[in-house]
Amino acid sequence: MGRFYEWEPFAEVKGSQKCELNCRAVGYRFYVRQAEKVIDGTPCDQNGTSICVSGQCKSIGCDDYLGSDKVVDKCGICGGDSTACRVISGIFKHSLTNLGYHKIVEIPEGATKINITEMSKSNNYLALRSRSGRAIINGNWAIDRPGRYEGGGTMFVYKRPNEISSTAGESFLADGPTNEILDVYVRIKHHFFIELGTRGTILNS
Q1: Are residues 131 and 180 in the same domain?
Q2: DSSP at 203
């Protein structure tokens, strides 16, 4: 008597196999090539900058030409040499003790290749707001899941490493350019216990 399998796409392959139709049996560790070629236009890399054409993985440049090797430079210019902009960098070292949100840096309009990263893991959370006060990530005393969030005309990737096993800090990453001024805050976390029946007061800065 035969066995039935449920199949799922399998993309953990290299080289010429990237444009084959490979499927893995759900719950098992083997995969099967179902076809020599996938449909033309199928993405064949994680960045989405290459597609399959006649069974081969072809790159697409930022100029939208097949086979082009042009990429967007640090200034957000396709085929540029990163000389049309300047780098703004720094490290926030101030001691913060009051509870609440504290502004640490302003991201100007037109910023590209944005990287806001904690130097190491802490008990606090990064937060991102528009200049009008609209919460984009981790606002209004809520903690968002790591993921992609749209704000300021670009897409931010919010990373929060495993809170138990990792020592890395949180980060906000975006290609830009931004179309408005954005403010980055750090939220000072609080957590305490009091005896039942005792009144407690939280002071927000």
Answers
A1: yes
A2: P
- Looking at residue 1, its pLDDT comes to 60
Q: Please give the average per-residue pLDDT across 147-155, as a whole number.
A: 96
Both structure tokens of 78: 């396709």
DSSP 67: T
43 part of a folded domain: yes
Q: Radius of gyration (Cα) for the chain, nearest Å?
A: 23
Residues 161, 174, 70, 47, CA torsion sign: positive
The pLDDT of residue 143 is above 60: yes
Residue 37 lies in a domain: yes
Give the model confidence (pLDDT) of 90-102 as tens digits. Answer: 888 777 667 788 8
For 127, the 3-state DSSP assignment is: strand
Give the amino acid at 40.
Answer: D
Q: What one-letter code names the amino acid at 3?
A: R
Q: 158, 100 in Cβ contact below 8 A?
A: no
Does the pLDDT value for residue 204 go beyond 50? Answer: no
Burial classification of residue 58, based on how many CB atoms lie within 10 Å of its CB (0-12 exposed, 13-18 middle, 19 or more buried) = middle
Question: In the structure encoding, which two tokens stand for residue 159, read together?
Answer: 């990373």
Provide the CATH number for the domain around residue 139: 2.60.120.830
pLDDT digits (tens, 9 = 90+) for 157-198: 999 887 677 788 899 999 889 999 999 999 875 444 455 554
Q: Could you tell me the residue range of the domain that residue 18 belongs to?
A: 7-59
Structural contact between residues 76 and 84, judged by C-beta atoms closer than 8 angstroms: no
AA letter at 188: I
**Is residue 70 domain-resident?**
no
In a domain, 19, yes or no: yes
